Amino acid sequence: MAGSATIRDLRNRFPRVRKIVEAEGEVVVTERGKPRYRLTLYSAAAAEAPAAKDYVARMKRHQPRPMSRAAAKALHEHNRGER
């Protein structure tokens, strides 16, 4: 079971809270009697950088589809009118 501490304990007695985290692996921090936060030990595997995003693929998803040559010619003729 995880240990517990209050916000005041974090401010005034952090070395004691740190020992609880090291012994139990987790501390639930309460605020006004209600559990609000969870302190856990740092692990390098959890802190790895996320995978790089493919911004070009994202941009292409939001770009309008190109018109076909025939559709472009028809639009041009329509806009041109009787000239």
In short:
This protein is of the alpha+beta class and 83 residues long. Helix content is 45%, strand content 20%. The N and C termini lie far apart (84 Å).
Can you walk through the features of this model?
This protein has about 80 residues and is an alpha+beta fold. It has helices at about 5-10, 15-25, 55-60, 70-80, and strands at about 5, 25-30, 35-40. It is built from 4 helices and 3 strands. A hairpin with a 2-residue loop joins strand 2 and strand 3. The model has no long low-confidence stretch (mean pLDDT about 90). It has a 3-stranded mixed beta sheet. Helices cover about 45% and strands about 20% of the residues. It is rod-shaped, with a radius of gyration of 30 Å. It has one domain (about 5-45, about 55-80): YefM-like fold (3-Layer(aba) Sandwich), CATH 3.40.1620.10.
User: Can you give the mean pLDDT?
Assistant: 88
Taken from the alpha-carbon principal axes, the silhouette is: rod-shaped
CATH topology: YefM-like fold
Which CATH top level class fits?
Answer: Alpha Beta
Q: Which parts are unreliable, with pLDDT below 50 for 5 consecutive residues or more?
A: none
| Tally of DSSP helical segments | 4
Helix content: 40-55%
- Overall number of structural domains: 1
